[in-house]
Design goal:
The structure is a homodimer. In chain A, 37% of the residues lie in helices and 27% in strands. By secondary structure, the first copy, chain A, is an alpha/beta fold. The first copy, chain A, has 2 domains: 155 residues, 3-Layer(aba) Sandwich (Molybdenum Cofactor Biosythetic Enzyme, Chain A); 75 residues, Alpha-Beta Plaits (2-Layer Sandwich), CATH 3.30.70. Chain A has a 6-stranded mixed β-sheet with strand order 2-1-3-8-7-6, sandwiched between helices. Chain A has a 4-stranded antiparallel β-sheet with strand order 10-11-9-12, with helices on one face. A two-stranded antiparallel ribbon of chain A has the order 4-5. Chains A and B meet through helix 1, helix 2, strand 2, helix 6 and helix 8 of A and helix 1, helix 2, strand 2, helix 6 and helix 8 of B.
Chain lengths: 250, 250
């Protein structure tokens, strides 16, 4: 029997380019969905700069607070790729050239100077294990409960696809139901509170939308028990009808 | 004369829907650019759930660490909109019905139950000040160095447009130059390190790209001194040519 305790994760997004607004992060949304299927709840995310001091402090704080910590970004071959070095320092250990990662990188020939740069990506902390990279590029690594992955979305997604429930034991996946209506949030606020109070095991979120043909509200129910979700959905649908709206089901 | 010290900001994104992956945040990138024009550096962002305890702890931690803190999300009229209440608790103060915000909301007539819900959005903490909402909807508010704004991007952007350098004194805006080339990151890693070492006042980032017609690297320089940026750009362009690449300027 699985534990009822929520299994939690935190994503640390490392990169000046995300904080400057130059690059739009999409890794959080993707990883949240992957983890949810493993019964792991994405409970917090942090976006931090390429700063060794900040990476060390954030990783050490988050690995105490959450069951799993993921990082994206900063594992390439250039001077601004300082994630591996910083993680090793956070764990008070050293980096070493992982033989398997080195062999992978040496498969593609390159001039010596270029190979030296590429081999930076074969360094992982002592005590770490590789995370497979199905794109054929350099792998990520895991040390303790910290999973270090690429920042480029296609590569991060490939690495995430290699993780499974054996490596990341979780709980029950959260399921959702949603229904929308062309009713303002204020019109549904009071009856919604009443329904939420009777379904304390389901998280009921209310999200306004604005479209060309009018404004309205999407109501999203999230919980682990499908039967309770169906019961709550029926009540929310009835509430929308009572308020003079027309339920829009996905 | 302006201080040389970097003026910093942190964005706290409040919302289960961002953490679940259902909604893609775009507020970070937008606000980062707005703040940069005011000479304020977005130095961290956190995505946290709709949890009073978490909001209080995060706001209290971040308002000590950064010059400015912004929050997005959770200021609507429904039961899951707990940001204003949580911020008041973080500042150990109470919410009250702000007369100007109340008058604005009462301009649009509504049945009593609906009006009660809408007036929730006129509550701000004692000691706070309004943030104008040019969309005509309910305002945001500022208390101390914390700026509480809407989560819906169009509304957040309208609120952000009402903030200026009088309310948010900053430093010098960061400017950038960028150049790309169809060269792998490993090919430019060594000469790039050498250039970065000589330009310690400019942040040089290296970002791989993968396109149908090949892979390459974008090099982004960020700093406050335009002359130094131009000098560094010229060196990076020359380096690309030396490595057998063709510089692609914006």
């Amino acid at each position: 029997m699985q534990s009822k305790k929520t299994v939690t994760a935190c994503l640390i997004i490392i990169g000046n380019e995300i904080l400057s607004g130059r690059t739009q992060d999409t890794n959080l949304a993707h990883l949240a969905k992957v983890l949810n299927e493993l019964g792991i709840s994405m409970s917090e995310a942090r976006v931090i700069p390429d700063s060794e001091e900040k990476i060390i402090a954030t990783v050490n704080e988050c690995r105490q607070e959450f069951d799993y910590v993921f990082t994206t970004g900063g594992i390439g071959p250039t001077h601004d790729d300082i994630t591996a070095d910083s993680i090793a320092k956070a764990f008070e250990t050293e980096l070493y050239l992982h033989p398997e990662a080195e062999a992978l990188i040496r498969q593609r020939p390159a001039p010596e100077e270029v190979m030296v740069a590429r081999l930076r990506m074969a360094r992982i902390p002592v005590g770490g294990e590789l995370i497979e990279n199905p794109t054929g590029g350099p792998p990520g690594f895991q040390i303790g409960n910290v999973f270090v992955m690429a920042g480029v979305p296609a590569v991060m997604q490939a690495m995430a696809s290699s993780l499974d429930g054996d490596r990341l034991p979780g709980g029950r996946p959260v399921r959702s139901r949603s229904v929308g209506a062309y009713l303002g949030e204020s019109q549904v606020a009071a009856p919604l509170t009443e329904i939420q109070n009777r379904f304390s095991d389901v998280d009921l979120g209310s999200y306004p939308f604005y479209r060309k043909d009018g404004y309205g509200t999407n109501l999203v129910m999230r919980g682990v028990d499908e039967k309770r979700l169906e019961q709550m959905l029926a009540e929310v649908v009835q509430m929308i009808i009572d308020q003079g709206g027309e339920p829009i089901l996905d």
